[in-house]
Records
---
Amino acid sequence: MERVKTTVSVIKADIGSVAGHVVVHPDTIAAATRVLAEAKAKGVIADFYVTNAGDDLELIMTHRKGADSPEVHEVAWTAFQEAAKVSRELGLYAAGQDLLSEAFSGNVRGLGPSVAEMEFVERPSEPIAVFMADKTEPGAFNLPMFRVFADPFNTAGLVIDPKLHTGFKFEVYDVFEGRSVVLNAPDEMYDILALIGTPARFIVRRVYRRIDGEIAAAVSVERLSLIAGRYVGKDDPVAVVRVQAGFPAMGEVLEAFAFPHLVAGWMRGSHHGPLMPVPQRYAKCTRFDGPPRLVGLGFQVKNSRLIGPVDLFDDPAFDETRRTAQLVADYMRRHGPFMPHRLGPEEMEYTTLPEVLEKLKERFTKVEGAPRAAEPRIKTELLSRESKEGD
Ligand SMILES: [Mg+2]
């Protein structure tokens, strides 16, 4: 007999917030909670926890219907619609922002919300970590995911635990082409890094344990601007990671966030800044709409029920990380509108900057005798979007 599988689905959307892009309103959380409670009573989902990371409404759900279940996605979609209704009534800022479509068609992917889902047979004790970021993009998880599952200087278990010692498989997703590649760590770690070092394009989507193919992590890969073709909001990502007993320990997973690395997002989704791990009460991006925040909640999953949460970064051990993040925030802010604080031109394409530049186009005049820039010597399909026809 096939063993019962539990699915953890974390689905989020920004459906409007109070006083700008700061925090969700409790009434929108209540509206979403009502929808999920009803779905639980009907047996569509087994359990749920509704929360927020800054201005993002987060639905953490468990059920037995597998990833991409139309029923579960419809519950999430209805919850966001109901919350957006409240958001509009209250005149919240950017009400319904991430809901790009009016009609639900069986799956929330492509409609605006971000999704991280994984299905597994529960271990006798099944601890998980759910990560929710605000004011950044899915590629923000690339560096920490690599460190958790491929860097022995971060994860001691890679060296000393036989189940981890054979390494992990990384599914890397290309957001521009909608395709993915599976690469093995440690053997192909340089290839993995060659891709995921470009986090705006290549995103670690899933991680599997090599010894038996068990799923270890899932990250949302939705990028709103690529779906909508214009800047809508930053694609604040979510991730689920299984921890302990054959997976990295909770402390090894959290250790990867002790370095507040630079990510894209922050003000107008157009700036690089440090990713600051915070207790949930501090997931309130106020300084220049940032710096980008990360909230982590720990749960036990038992018979598809959620036990918890534990607020994982509510620990003075991360005070120095936060202090470093503040110093980095100061340093980056002093660049004002200059790169690398402001994002590069490929990323700015989806913002309102092109409209500003369009005005100047006619005013440029040719400079006689000026050398023309040479064609780039190396063009690869993987690195240059321009090299692709019809792009
Ligand atoms: Mg947000």
Note: Residues 386-391 have pLDDT under 50 and may be disordered.
---
Amino acid sequence: MKLNGDTIGAIIYPAIFFAMIIALFVVPAFAEDTTIDMLNKRDDGAKMVYSQDVARIDVGDTITWLPKSKGHNVEFIAGPDGWDIPKKSKNNKEVAITFDTPGVYMYQCTPHKAMGMIAMVIVGDDTSNLDAIADMKWRGKSKKKMKAILADL
Ligand SMILES: [Cu+2]
């Protein structure tokens, strides 16, 4: 068979089209997005909190933090070995982080850490560094909050 431009187009364009359709369905199945709100008050009455105390996600997932109330940020303070802690986010700014390393992560709101505004991320069900995180120095209300988080796991 002799391939002219039309024949090649008739093969290539449908192939590209189907590849794009497949990509639309396949990609979201592997990487999911979670959103966490930064709040002055949560539905359960807790003040100066993130909407989730513990977020369980898969490796490769992205969490986006939304500044639903003013005056908060996201500052990571612990994670698994080999993970570079990102710079703390600016107050009142949305921030997104993708987690490619399994393990337990802790973050806090810089202005409200003493008020217990801390939260945990568990990636890929890997809790091998949980003891190291539990043994960190937790101050003020964060100490109590950390105890509650660990008791709920
Ligand atoms: Cu805060």
Note: The two ends are 65 Å apart (CA to CA).
